[in-house]
Amino acid sequence: MSGTDMSAAVGQDAADPAGGERLRRWRMVLGGGDADGTGHALTGRDAAMDAALGALYGGGGEGGSRRASGPARSAGLGGSAPNVARWLGDIRTYFPSSVVQVMQRDAIERLGLSILLLEPEMLEAVEPDVHLVGTLLSLNKAMPETTKETARAVVRKVVEQLEKRLATRTRATLTGALDRSARISRPRHRDIDWDRTIRANLKNYLPEYGTVVPERLIGYGRAAQSVKKEVILCIDQSGSMAASVVYASVFGAVLASMRSIATRLVVFDTAVVDLTDQLDDPVDVLFGTQLGGGTDINRALAYCQSKITRPADTVVVLISDLYEGGIRNEMLGRVAAMKGAGVEFVTLLALSDEGAPAYDREHAAALAALGAPAFACTPDLFPEVMAAALEKRPLPTP
User: Which pTM value belongs to this model?
Assistant: First the structure.
């Protein structure tokens, strides 16, 4: 909006009882100063909100110059724990939780505040979310003992929130998939799989009656507790995969809680670590990871391949951006060998809500050519992807 247009709006709003609210909103958006043309001063709660925004996005920082009317907006929290703690308290007072999480993430990235998360007082002041957990895990090795218990409490709070959101639906979806995968030849009427039954009896089609005579019925069984599928989650723990590591650890714990699924969780960079024995507590899993470092997908897949005992009943889920530092042709050869043996192979470029990820397109295309398409997956879609893999049907790619 030009200065002339804003001046006209100011004149119009002066006679409009609702105009003050419109000017207030423009003032909050534009950041103040003579250039914004509103001439509207902020007081009370509005001034405090503007100051909190200015400390992060104001003049002198990456966000450019945005000066408040009266005191100028200026970026910077002073780099001290007291200033940051006060600011964290302010934004939690004035903004909803979803906005607070975005502002915290921006503060860590724009103002280099990661080091302050090593102080217990700071951790107690932040709003926990998946991205904060990723940051804490990347700082794990540098974290002093006085901070580790507070950090674990923060991580546990996020994990419990995710389990509450995802666990019930995941168990229900996968239990249904396991039931349907246990086919029986003498099903009760309610358990008949009509699509498969019709396809199996097409040779018995009677054109004069326009019908198929179902000599052989195919039905859904009820998966017994002794009938197991094997799932191997193979997770890239390079720094760019932080959110995926968090979600995958939670899903790993949920899958491990299902008696009919034998779950193995493997994390890797240039080394491979099997965290299966810690799956009863995803917080232990997360603190067993070490975000950052290189990537050797080939070595990780070699380890997973060595643990497969029932290929036809096994699903391998590789979660990686596919930036391979190992031997590319061997990696692709292992995927081809596993698929040839009957393994269902799923490649997720990311398991998060962060949008389209960066990934190695050449490797993704090579996997697609092997019949293992690579795609990004949100946590809400993951149960459906796993159900399709367990049933050996096409994956619901986004």
Answer: 0.68
